[in-house]
Amino acid sequence: MVNIFQSLLLVIAGATQKELARQVKYLKVENQVLRSKLPKRITITPKERVRLVKFAQKLGGKVLRQLTTIVAPSTILRWIRAEKKLKPQKRKRGRPKTPEQLRRLILKMARENEWGYTRIMGELKKLGIKPPSRNTVKNILKAAGYEPGPRRGEGTWDDFLKQHAASLWQCDFFSKRILTLRGIREVFVLAFLHVETRRVILSPPTFNPNENWIVAQAAVFVEQARGQGLRVATVQHDCDTKFTQGFDQALRQRRARVRRTAFRSPNTNAFVERFVQSIGQECLDRFVIFGEKHMNHVCQEYLQHYHQERPHQGEGIENELLIRKQKPRQVAAISLSEVNCSERLGGLLKSYSSKAA
Description:
CATH architecture of the largest domain: 2-Layer Sandwich
Largest sheet: 5 strands, mixed
Distance between the termini: 102 Å
């Protein structure tokens, strides 16, 4: 009997696709003849059932409905479904989760100290606890809102800004190439920004920002800021050579401390840098400027729009105006006829308000 099956397998292995189809067709006919010689009901042993399911589950329901004769097709499909349910579930791969008690201990150390993740891992090791991986500790800290790195020195830069925002000013130059009777020339404007309120003071434009000019602007700035009720305790600027020693000295004489940012670190002067970007993209880049007076007019128009008409998305401002004359009434909806559109600079700068306001 074994030799017969071996011969049959050799024949099937060497057959072509068409030959296999003819052989399968012959086997189906032969199976029908043999099935007709047997009684209508055939008892299947558990071992035979396992063998049938093993080979049948790879064929699919459509094929089984055409081939199955020893039992009803629905029966063998039911056996296959039952076999799949009995199979053990595969174990999930990956590292096991960090124990909850260990996670709480890591967060306790981060909350009560100014340690980074490496120091926390050392403390765990000191307690006899095998610490999780570096990335695991970092992810636990980040998920809870803690910085994974340590705090160094007197405090973070964010701490400094929060502590000094009420009296901290940042200043920076921006420039624009304009048309004059002498041709195209570059004009400079000095911007001072109050970090807490985001309010801005602009100098008049100049072609020559020399030391005498910038020292004069320092004095005018302090006078204007304090005239608006804004404290001037610290003035911060970058390493631009136009910020001379005379400029710093003029501020110190007016009881203002000068803080110079690190070389090539624009992010530390980010608030005034963002204003320079805004006035450029929203206004100056869209104009051809003719002379200093025109430049000054455009800058002052934008400044009024920036303070009184443009909502701001900065932290703590929450889409409010920097300077609001009166608070509008709160309504669920408003008709278009009650909305007034104001324009500046030929319609470039638009703002909307209620006519009843």
